[in-house]
Amino acid sequence: MHHFQYRGGELYAEDVPVSTLVAAYGTPLYIYSAATLRRHFAAFDSAFDGLPHLTCFSVKANSNLAVLRTLGAMGAGVDIVSGGELYRALAAGIDPAKIVYSGVGKRGNEIEEALNAGILMFNVESMGELERISRIAARLGKNANVSLRINPNVDPKTHPYISTGLKKNKFGLDMETSLAAYARAMELPGVTPVGIDCHIGSQLTSIEPFLEALDKILIFREKLVAMGISPRYLDLGGGLGIQYNEEEPPHPREFGQALTKALGDLPLTLVLEPGRVIVGNAGILVTEVVYTKKTPSKDFVIVDAAMNDLIRPSLYDSYHAISEVRPAERDTLNVDVVGPICESGDFLARDRELPAVAPGEYLAVYSAGAYGFTMSSNYNSRPRAAEVLVDGDTVTLARRRETYEDLVALER
Ligand code: LLP
C-alpha cells in the first residue's frame, strides 16, 4: 500500500496533486511519500517485535537526508557502505550506535571515520579488511566491534546482478575462512567479534532462501560458541522484495514470524538491513512526454526522464508500472517509453500497453523510491532530477534540481 492514489481524476501524492508539484518543481521529479515511508518502516520493524532487534535502513536504496531523517525519527538505524553514506547518516542525525557498516572495499580513511563516529559494528568481508580495521583501531586507541560476513552459498533466486550469497560472488567469506577469521579476530588488538553477518541478495520474493541461509548460520554459530565466541548480533542483511508488477513477495509479518520461529530464544539481537521494502513503493518518478514517434516497427513515447535518472530498466530489465498523472479515455498503444539519451538501452519500459498520450502530458513511473535517485548520474550532461518529500499536505524540496552550473562546478 502506498499513498499515490487518484482523486477526482488525477494522481495525488498524499494530499497534494502531482500536477501542483510538477508546476512548482518541474520534471523529471522524484516524489516521496512520508506516510508511506512511515507505514513501511512500522510494518517491517513491528514484524520483529517478538525478538530483540534493530532495523537498519540500507542507505544505498535512498540516501536523501529528508528520507533518512523521517526514518531516523522512527528509531531506525542505518546500514552504510561508504564514508559518504556515513556522512549522510550523521548529517541526518542517525544515532551512530545504530549504524552498521557493510561493503567489500572499505578504505582506511573510511574505517577511521566510522571508528571516530562510534558506529555499532563493521560487517567485515575479508581477512585483509579485518587486519586493517585492527591496525587502525589500535592506532586510534579504539575498539571496533566486528561481525564477519558469511557467504552461505544460497541461491536467492533473483536477478544475477543482485545475488550476493553465492559462492561465486565477491561478497563475504566462505564458512571455513570465516572460522579462521574469527580465530584471528580473537588475537588481534582493537577488534572484538560481536556478531555474524550475512546478506544473500536483493528483491527476494520468497522466504525460503533466507531460512536456508539462517539454518547454515545457526550451525556456524554453534561452532563459534564451541570456540568460546558468543556472538550477540545476528545480522541477516536486507533483500526482502516488493511488488513491481506481478511478484507476490511475502509480507514483512510472515518474514518476521518465520525468523522469530527459527531463532527461538537464542540470546541474539537480530539486525536487519532492509532498503527496497521500506522505500521502493514510497517514491515515484514523474516525467513529461516530450514527443511521440511512430516508426514502421514501433511506437515510441519519448519522455524527459532517462536512464541517467532511473537506470533499473536498462540495467536489470526491471519493470516499473507507468500511468498518466491525469488519465483520460482513449485508445491504448503498445509503446516503448524511452528517454533522450543516446543509447538504445535508454528506456523506462518496453512493449508496454499505454494510453495514447500526447506531448506535454505527465507520466508517473512507480516503485522508483529505491535505487532510483541513488543510482542516477549526469550522463549526457543531464542535471540530476529534483526530489520532493510530501507529508500530508506539506511539501519539502528535499533536493533541488541540479543546474548547468552544477554540472561544471568541480571542473577547471
Ligand atoms: N545490506 C547489504 C549488505 C546490501 O548489499 C544490500 C543491497 C542491502 C542490505 C539492502 O537490500 P534491499 O533490502 O534493498 O534488497 N540496485 C539494485 C539493488 C542492489 C542491492 C545491493 N545491496 C536494484 O536496483 O535492484
UniProtKB/TrEMBL annotation:
Substrate binds at residues 276, 312, 316, 343, 371. Its EC number is 4.1.1.20. SUPFAM superfamilies: Alanine racemase C-terminal domain-like (SSF50621), PLP-binding barrel (SSF51419). One of its GO terms (molecular function) is diaminopimelate decarboxylase activity. Residues 33-369 form the Orn/DAP/Arg decarboxylase 2 C-terminal domain. GO terms for biological process: lysine biosynthetic process via diaminopimelate. Pyridoxal 5'-phosphate binds at residues 239, 273-276, 371. Residues 35-279 form the Orn/DAP/Arg decarboxylase 2 N-terminal domain. Keywords: Amino-acid biosynthesis, Decarboxylase, Lyase, Lysine biosynthesis, Pyridoxal phosphate. Pfam families: Orn_Arg_deC_N, Orn_DAP_Arg_deC. It catalyses: meso-2,6-diaminopimelate + H(+) = L-lysine + CO2. Its cofactor is pyridoxal 5'-phosphate. InterPro entries: Ala_racemase/Decarboxylase_C, DAP_deCOOHase_LysA, De-COase2_C, De-COase2_CS, De-COase2_N, Orn/DAP/Arg_de-COase, PLP-binding_barrel. Specifically catalyzes the decarboxylation of meso-diaminopimelate (meso-DAP) to L-lysine. This is Diaminopimelate decarboxylase.
